[in-house]
## 1
Amino acid sequence: MRKKKMIITLTVVIVILLASLIGVSSYFYNIAVASGPKDFLNDNPDLEVSSDMNLKYEGKEWLARTTFEDVTITSDDGLKLKGYYFEAKKPTNKTVIIAHGYSGVAKDMARFAKFYQEKLDYNVLMPDARGHGESEGNYIGFGWPERRDYQKWINYIIEKNGQDSEIVLHGVSMGGATVLMTSGEELPKQVKAIVEDCGYTSAEGVLKYQLKRMYNLPSFPIIGSTSAMTKLRAGYTFAEASALEQVKKAKLPILFIHGEDDTFVPVEMVHELYKAAKTEKELYLVPNAEHGNAYDANPATYEQKVTEFIGKYIQ
C-alpha cells in the first residue's frame, strides 16, 4: 500500500511538473516566437543608443518622398510575402536586398535603402519578413525559414532585372542572421556578396543569453521545451536556426559588422561567426555603437567600409 501511494504521489508530481513546463514553454513561445507586438522590448536598456539617430529620421523623410513598387511572392509554405522595390535613378543591374530586424518592418531600413539608391546607384528591395509588417505568417523564424524566403526574393530579382543581375544581401540584427543563414544555401551566381550587421550565432544562443539577461533564468529546461513547442507549431528548432553552422558552408564573401558596445547581441558572437567563415571575409567593429546602431554611430566609415567591400565583387 505504501509503495502504491509513493507511485501515485510521484506520478502526480511528474504530471504537475510537465504541466508547469508546458505552461512556461507556451508563455515563452508566445513572447518570443509568435508574431505580434513585443512589449518586452519596450524600455529595454540593451536597446538604448547613444547616437542621435539622425539617419533614421532622414530615412523616414526619404521614404516619404521616394516612389516605390509594392511587390509580393508566395513562400514555399504558401504565405504571401510583401516587399517594397525602389528602382535606381538610372538603369542598372545592381540590386541590394535588405533584411530588417526582429519585430521590425521593412520600412525601418529606409536609411540603408537611401544609401544604396542615392550613393551607390542600386535598385533596392526591402521585404517584410514572415510574421512581420504586411507579410503573412503567425510566427517568427529567427532567420531559418526566412532563408528560404530570401532565396525566392533573389529569384524574383533575377526574373525582374535579368540574368546579368548582381545582388548584394544586407541584413541587420535578425536580418543579419537571416542573410548569414541564407549564405549557407546554394545560391545563384548573381548573388555576389553579403553584409551582415549585428547578427547572432543562432536562435538558441541568443535566446539563452536573453533568458539569463532579461529574466535571470537558467536555459535548462526552458529553452529545450520551448524549442520543442516551436518545432510542433512553427516547424523548426532553435538549435537548427544556426547562422554559425550556415556560415561554415558559405562560399560568398561576407562583411561582418558589430557595435563594440552591443549588449543585446553580445559582440562575442560576431567573433564566433567570423572565425567560422571559411570564405573571403572582413570584420568591422564599430566603437561606441550599441545594438543596430553601427551605421548611425559612424555613418561615414560605415558607408566607406560597405562600399569598398562590395565594390570588390560587383562589376
## 2
Amino acid sequence: MDVIELLPRLHLLRFPVGQAYLWRDGSELTLIDAGTIGAGRAVAAAVTALGHAPEDVRRIVLTHFHEDHAGGAGEFAALSGAEVFAHHLDAPFVRGERPGPPPLFEDWELPIHAQAAQHLPAGEPVRPRRVTPVSDGEVLEFGGGAQVIHVPGHTDGSIALFLPDDGVLFTGDTVAASPVDGSVMPGVFNLDKSRLLASLGRLADLDAEVACFGHGEPVLGGAFATLRELVGAR
C-alpha cells in the first residue's frame, strides 16, 4: 500500500484496487473508505507511520458498500475502535445482513472488471460490529463539518463528502480518473448510469477545489471547473 500526502491534513492510501483517504483534525483522524478485505492492519501501520495511533482514527466513513471500499472496515474498526458510518441504504450490505445488488455492466466494462477482480483478496470481510446510518444533508464532526451528499447511481446508497471550509470533496466512485491518461470520467460498474450522471451534476455544483476519487489521481486545484466541464461534455 502506498501512502501519499496530498495536503498537510490529507493523505491518500492506495491499494492494489481502489484507495482510501485519511483526514486529520489536530490529533484526531477520519478514514474515508477502508480498502479491501485484509486491509485493516495495513491501514493501522500507515497511521502509525504518520505518527499517530490507530485509536486516533475516530470514524470510518464509507462512500458505498463495494468490497474494495468497505472490505477492510470491520477489521480496522476492531483494531482502532473507530465508529463506522454508511448511508442507510448501503448499511445492511456493509453489516453483511444480505448481499448487495451487483452492477449492471456495460459490455466494455466486463474485461476491466475481470482484470480488477484478479487483484481482490479472497474470503469474507470482517464485518463491523455496528454501522451508524447516515442520510443526505447530515453533517459529520470532522473537517469543520463534513456534509453528507447522497449520490445514488453507482450504488443506491453511495455518498460523497464535502468539506466546505477546505473545499475538499470525496466523490467515492461517482467520479474516477482514468488510469490510462488521468482524465476525469464518470464512475464505472454502476447500478444505474442515468442516476449516477444526475449525481455527478450535483457534485459539479459544489465549490470544490480538491476532488478525491475512489479510483485514480485526485484533482488538487480547480476541481469545480473540472467537474463542470465533465458534466457539460455529457
